[in-house]
Structure formats: structure tokens, C-alpha cells
Amino acid sequence: MKNSALRVEEYSSDLDVRVAPKDAALSMAHIYIAFSAFLVGAIAGLLQGLVRGGMIELPSWLGYYQILTAHGVLLALVFTTYFIFAFLFAGMSRTHGAFSDRLRKLSWTGFIVLTIGTLLAAVLIILNEASVLYTFYAPLTAHPLYYVGLTLFVVGSWISGAALLAHYFSWKKAHKGERTPLFGYMTVATIVLWIIACLGVAVTVLLQMIPWAFGLTDEINVLLSRTLFWYFGHPLVYFWLLPAYIAWYVSIPKIIGGKLFSDSLARMAFVLFLLFSIPVGFHHQLMEAGISHMWKFIQTLLTFVVIVPSLMTAFSIFGTFEQTGRAKGGTGIFYWLHKLPWKDVRFFAPFMGMIIFIPAGAGGIINASFQMNAVIHNTLWVVGHFHLTVGSTVLLTFFGISYWLIPHLTGRKFTPFLNRLGMVQTWLWAIGMFFMSGGMHLIGLLGAPRRTAYTTYQNHPDALVWFEGIFTNYITIAIGGVILFVAAVMMFYNFIYMTWLAPKGDTEFPISEPAEDASETPKVFENWKLWIGIAIVLILFAYTIPIYDMIVNAPPGSPTFDYLIK
Amino acid sequence: MHLHRYEKIWLTFGIGSLIIFLTVLGVSAFAMGHQPPSHMAKVDPQNVRSEAPFDEPGLRQIDETTYQANIIAMAFTYQPNKIEVPVGSTVRFHVTSSDVVHSFTIPNTNVNFMVTPGHINMAEHTFTEPGTYLVLCNEYCGTGHHHMQMTIEVVE
Ligand code: HEM
Ligand SMILES: [Cu+2]
Ligand SMILES: [Cu+2]
To answer: A134 in ligand 1 pocket by Cβ < 6 Å?
Structure first.
């Protein structure tokens, strides 16, 4: 049978444009840690699903909130961040040329600091000194070194980010007047977003939590700390999403044998994401006291602006699909769909992610809808939601990237065998997610809380219904979790296979040619000072008055509560 | 920069629906009073019990059908742990925390808000059906978080 994924002649025209070998080593170092974290995080996820369903009990030396902390940290922070840097380093080397020795050294420094931070945090989680979950809300208190670990994590990511920015700007200097490659442009938007976002978490961790956890100060301003955390927490999700969008805009058009629909629209979407994903953190604090209705509503309005670049992205990507399908002879309203490479996992896994983003986005609109938030806030609905967004859309895209990124970096071949494994993996992930996330959404509507170990609330009928429904049942969630775990183990095997076992050879790093309209892209998009300036103005507008109020009119602060987590 | 004609239609439709939707949200919030819980009152979280109203936690009748329930959330329970009101009563919950962050959540109602130390948060609910209502904490507050609950008896 002919496997469309393997028409290597058609797809692999750029085999000689490679990631430089020394940059490949850097990128692979990130990949090793990313997938190790992924496997351990998935084990924790499996256990959580089974525990909540009352199907197993954890041994006495392992706490539910301990594995939940590990799950959140390993998957949402460690896997994502390491994978993103692996992708961005490789992509920048591929599109902007090899890193200079100086910048590569800087990148390795970033990697080492990031990894020391990760290991420190991991050790404290293992010792059960940090079961505060990956959001570490005060005044629950972890071991002070846990906060030091998180700080190193952020600092390491900033060093790596600085290396990426420097590489882009030195390219720009050497190519005066030329339009920058789209990959670099999008990388800069992502890193700038990350650096501005981290300022919030850096302020609360360095100025509030570390002095307080070490006993240098007696009290902490809880509301201020939560606000600074969520100033960071929402753009964090865009830090996960934007690299997935980079693959959609830059790599997928090449994989399907076409060209991006529009260059200027792609750049504009990224600028809008940068501007409107930060001044919106209050939508995570809608249910708490001490922030006025007015400011909550203003940030809710700003939140919804991200729908605009999201619609633009949907249009661009599906426009690219249609254009390509028609160029390949597809006709009619839908026939062009047949011309897309459905059996090629490099296309199919991210495509599945895109489809899942439709219900995920609709759920997100409900979450952010001000008063409506009360119905779902902190219920399992929310957990269902982000297993669709980050857990499926982002992850399936990252898996899709892995199928060419890893063999490209290790000098191996993308084989039909790997493609088949990948297709099965994608389906299993989607099916597992359907049960797990579907169950979580519905049971959340019935009030089931998130972040809660097995409990029937003393057999209260309102809690027992969570164990009795046909689909709205903790068992559905556990079954989905088991399927997902199988898919996760498969993905881990795929990583091993691509790294050490696949036959030696070449795999293309797909980068689309510039879009037709690329030459007309307005110069203003490259004006980063302007965009960063506007971003800062929006942030100051959305946050200055409420934060001033939180500081000046603060209630007495809170002491540490480290005994509650042990 | 050039926008494709379909893209113009798509964005106009999208942004148009967005504006309508946000207007509905705004009107429902500010004209009809459907606001998220955003109480501004404050307390000293380390001396919650020395100030009114939390020096006497419990239920207070305001008028014939309205009650105020002053409740302290703490690891891993609420004080009081049980309240009783006649069916048809409207209860205003005023809740604060004497330690970490908790929530005050009655499944299958719109009462679901965060309880942060230093602040008093509130919500109101009219109980039209008799029964034993479960209140639970849905914000992680420590090793015993999943045991944190209380009940509201709504009697004929
Ligand atoms: C094997 C696949 C997975 C399974 C079985 C799984 C299962 C679960 C379950 C049952 C919970 C809810 C626990 C609770 O609220 O009590 C949870 C929470 C969570 N999961 Fe997953 N998950 C999986 C994959 C992922 C992935 C890939 C990501 C992100 C990249 C992710 C991110 C999270 C986060 C951030 C939380 C919330 C942690 C918290 O509340 O502190 N999960 N997961
Ligand atoms: Cu958000
Ligand atoms: Cu709790």
C-alpha cells in the first residue's frame, strides 16, 4: 500500500538546509529532559485518574497532592518549556543560520540554569516538601528552596530567550533592509511575551515569597501575590500555544506541499497575541474578594480581544489548506480536502490538535464569561478544558513536530513504521481525551471539585452522583486516563525510536517558502519598540490602579503555613 | 496590507458577534446586577475571631425570610459546620479564612467563590427546595482538603 507520508521526493526538497550539528546537540539536550518529564508526568496523571475514581489507593509514602504537584510541574512547566526551547533553538539555527559560539555558550548556560532549577524543585517535590501544586499560591508554604528552584527555572529560560533574541537581531543587522524570516519573527514575539509575563511571577517570588518563606519577613500580601501570579499565568498559556502556532504557520504549509496564505496576517496575529494576552489575568480571579467589579470587567473585555487573532489564525491555516488542495487539483466546495495528506502523521497530529481547539476555545469563552465563571470555577470542568487546550492542541502539535524534528536532529529517517505508530498514537490520544476531558467537563458541571483526592463527602448524595452516571462518572475519567497513558507510553517509545533506533538518514526540517504577499508586509511589524511600548501601556492601564489599591489598602498579611502540606 | 474578501467577511462576523456578546455580558452585570463576588471588606486574618461579625460565627436573622451566615473557613472545616434555615429563605453568606485560601461552594447552585485570608467574600442564595445541601472547598488547602465540608439543612 502506498503511504502518502513517504513521498520523500515531494516533501524533502530542502535536505541540505540543516540545523547546524552543534545547535542540534543543544536542542536534543532539551528533548531528552522534555520526554523524561513527560513519562513521569503521565504516570502521575494515570494514578490521579485511578485514585479519584476510588479504584486504587496510593501507598502511604506517596501523597495525592504530591503527585498532583509533580504532574502539573512536569507536564505544564518542564515538558512544555524544554520542548519549546528545543524547537526554537533548532528552528532559529535552521532559518537564521548556525548560532555563533558565543551565543551557543549562552544558550547552554541557560539550559544548565534551567536544569538546576528543575532538579531542585523535583527533589523537594519528591521529599514532600513542596506539595503546593504547580501554582504555589500563598499562604500555603513550600520549602524555601522550592521557590529558589522556580526562580532558577525562570532565570534559565530568560538566558536562553536572550540568546534567541540576540541571534535574531544579529541576523537582522547582517541583512539590512531584508524582511526577517517568519520563524524568527514569531520566535521573538514568543520570547518577548515570555519575558514580560515572567516579570510578575519574578516579583512575587523574589520580593514576597522568598523573604517570607526564609523567615526574613513575617507576613505576605496574599491578594497581591495571587494577582502577580495571574499576571503571569494567563500569558503562560500563550507561551505554550504560540510555538504550536509557529508550526502551523511555518511548517505545516510545507508538509502539505503548499505555501502560507498570508505573511502580513501571520505577523499581525502574533503581535495581537503579544499585546492582548498579558493585561487580562483577572479573568482567573473573577470569584475572589478585593478586586472591584469594574477592573474585573475591563480585563474581561481585553481577554476577549484574543478572539480576533485566533479567528485570523483559523482563517489563515484553513485558507492555506484550501489553496494547497486546489493547487493539487482538488475542486468543489469540499473535494480539495481529499488532497491533504491525511495519512501523514506530521500533518495529521497537529490537524487533530486544531480540530480539538474548536470545542476547547468555546469552553474558554464560557470560562472567561464573567458571572458565568461561578458555575465552573475550580471544578473539574476547568481541568477538562486545559487538557483540551494545552493537553491536546499544544501537545498533539508538539508530537507532530517531534516526528520530523527529532530524526532531523539525530540524523535518522522518518520511516513508514514510525508514521504508523504516530497515527495510532494520535488516535489513542484523541480517544483518551474524549473520555477523560469529556467526563471532566460534565462532572464539573455537577460540581465535582478539581485538585481533590478521592472523597464522597461522607456519602452525600450530591457527591455520589459523580460515581453513578453513565458518562458523567469518575470511572469515565479513569478509563480515559488509562487510554491516554497507553498513548503517552507509545509517544515515549517513539521518542526512543527516533533518537536511537530509526535507520540513519535524512529527514527534512520543513519550512514553508514565504507567502505570495510577503514582499508587501508593512515595515511597521518589525518595529519591536513600538509593540513592546503598546504592550506596556496596556499593562499599566489594566493593572496600575488595582495593584496600587491592593498595596495601599491591604489587610494585615498572612504568616507561613507549611504544616498544612505534610 | 491586503485582506482577502472572505477574510473581511469572517472577521466582521466574528468581531460583530463578539461585540454583541460582550454587550450582553456588560448589561447583565452592570444593569441587572449579575456581578461576580467581589466584596471589598477586609479583616485581620490572624485575629479573625476578635472582630465582628466573626466573633460570633453563625446564622443571624435579618428579616422574615433573610438570614446572614457568618462563616469562618479553616483547614479543614467551616465554623459553624452546620446551619439550618426554613425553606424559602434567602441566605447571605459572609465568609473569611483564618488560615490559607479556601472556597465556599454549594454544588448545583451559583454559590461558588474564593475565600482569601484578609478578605470577606459573599454571595446570596434563596433555598426553594428542602434538603441537606453540601458545602465543599474546591481550592486546594492542604493534605486534608478533600475532607473540608459543611451542610446546610433547609427544612419545611
Ligand atoms: C497521560 C495523560 C494525562 C492524564 C491521565 C492526566 C490526568 C489528570 C487528572 C486526572 C488531573 C486532575 C487532578 C485533580 O484535579 O485532582 C490532571 C490535572 C492536570 N493536568 Fe493532566 N493528565 C494527563 C496529561 C496532561 C498533559 C499532557 C498536561 C499538560 C501538558 C497536563 C496538565 C495538567 C495540569 C496543569 C493539571 C492541573 C494540576 C493542578 O491542578 O495543580 N496533563 N491531569
Ligand atoms: Cu487565562
Ligand atoms: Cu480546600
So the answer is: yes
